[in-house]
Amino acid sequence: MTYQKKTDFKNLTLQNYIDVLPKTNKYKKLGEDSFLTNCPVHDDNNPSLAISQGHSRVIFKCFAGCSQQELLAYFSNELRR
C-alpha cells in the first residue's frame, strides 16, 4: 500500500498499521480490535506495544516507555513506503 498525503492517515485502519509491523512479530489478542505485540522502536523480546482500533483512529502505546513521537515516526515512515 502507498499513502502519499498526510491526510490519508486519518482513514487508516488497524490492519494498515499491523501490515507494516515486522513479520516476525507475535500477537496476543486483547479484545475485538486490540492486540499486544512487539514494539518496533526498541529491541522487544517481551511484547509491550498495545495497538487498538478506536472509534475514529488507531491507538497505540508502548508499555516499555517508547514515546508517542517515536512510535509516530516509525509508523509514518513505514506507512509512506
Question: How does this structure look, described?
Answer:
With 81 residues, this protein is of the alpha+beta class. It has helices spanning 14-19, 68-79, and strands at 27-31, 34-37, 49-53, 58-62. A hairpin with a 4-residue loop joins strand 3 and strand 4.
Query: How many domains, in number, for the residues?
Result: 1
End-to-end span in angstroms?
A: 8 Å
| Count of alpha and pi helical runs | 2
Spatial ordering of strands, largest sheet: 1-2-3-4
Order of helices and strands: HEEEEH
Strand content: 15-25%
Q: Percent range for helical residues?
A: 10-25%
Q: Catalogue the unreliable spans.
A: 3-7
- In terms of structural class, how would the helical and strand content be classed? alpha+beta
Rg, Å, rounded: 12 Å
Question: Looking at the chains present, what oligomeric state does this protein adopt?
Answer: single chain
Overall average residue pLDDT: 89
Assign an overall shape.
Answer: globular
Main sheet characteristics: 4 strands, antiparallel
Q: How many β-strand runs?
A: 4
Helix and strand layout, with pairings?
Elements (H helix, E strand, L loop, with lengths): L13 H6 L7 E5 L2 E4 L11 E5 L4 E5 L5 H12 L2
Antiparallel strand pairs: 1-2, 2-3, 3-4
Core attributes:
disordered N terminus; 2 helices; 22% helix; 4 strands; 81 residues; alpha+beta; globular; four-stranded antiparallel β-sheet
Summary of the model, kept short:
With 81 residues, this protein is α+β, with helices and mostly antiparallel strands. It has one domain.
